[in-house]
Amino acid sequence: MDRFRLCIAMELNSAEQSPTPLSLTQSLIAEQIVTAQLEQLSHVSVSTIPPVEAILEAFLFPPLHVVMSVGEQSLYRARFMGRCRTEPDPVQSIAKQEFHASKQSFLDVLQRSLPEQSRTEPHRTVLET
User: Fold this and answer.
1) Sign of torsion over alpha carbons 12, 78, 31, 84
2) Cis ω for the linkage preceding 62 (within 30 of 0)
3) Domain span at residue 66?
C-alpha cells in the first residue's frame, strides 16, 4: 500500500509542486474506495440472488463519490484513477493489488447472481445486456 499511496500523493501534488499533509491524507483514495465498495456490497449481498443492477451500483458509485467529493482536487483524483488502469507496470500492478479484495468480492456476488456463467464470464454478460 505504501508505494500506491506514494504514487497517488505524487499525482495529487503535481498541481501543488510540494507535499502537504492534506495531499498525503488524500493518498488514501484506494483504501477509501475499497472500504466504501465493500460496505455497499455487504448490503446488496444479503439477498440470496442479488440483482445485477444493485451489484453494479455498489461497485461503480463508491469510486465516483470518493473521486468527486473533494472539490477542485476531484480532477486530480479522476486523472490518477484513469492512469492506474492505463499506465504500464509498476503502476498498474500496484493498482490491481490494491483493488484485488473488492474485485474478488464483487466477482463472488456476481457469480451468485449469474450462476450459469463461468467465473471469468460474468463481466461480459453484464456489459452485453
Assistant:
1) negative
2) no
3) 2-128
Residues 6+ apart with CB under 8 A from 53: none
Cα 32 from Cα 68, distance rounded (Å): 13
Q: Are 29 and 1 in contact (CB under 8 A)?
A: no
If one counts the domains in the chain, the total is: 1
- Please report how the helices 91-113 and 74-86 are oriented relative to each other, as an axis angle in degrees rounded to 10: 90
Whether 127 and 69 have beta carbons less than 8 Å apart is answered as: no
Question: Model-level pTM?
Answer: 0.69
In 3D space, the residue among 57, 35, 39 whose CA is nearest the CA of residue 113 turns out to be: 57
User: Measured between alpha carbons, how far is 74 from 83 in angstroms, rounded to an integer?
Assistant: 14
pLDDT in tens, 32-73: 899 999 999 999 999 889 999 999 999 999 999 988 988 888
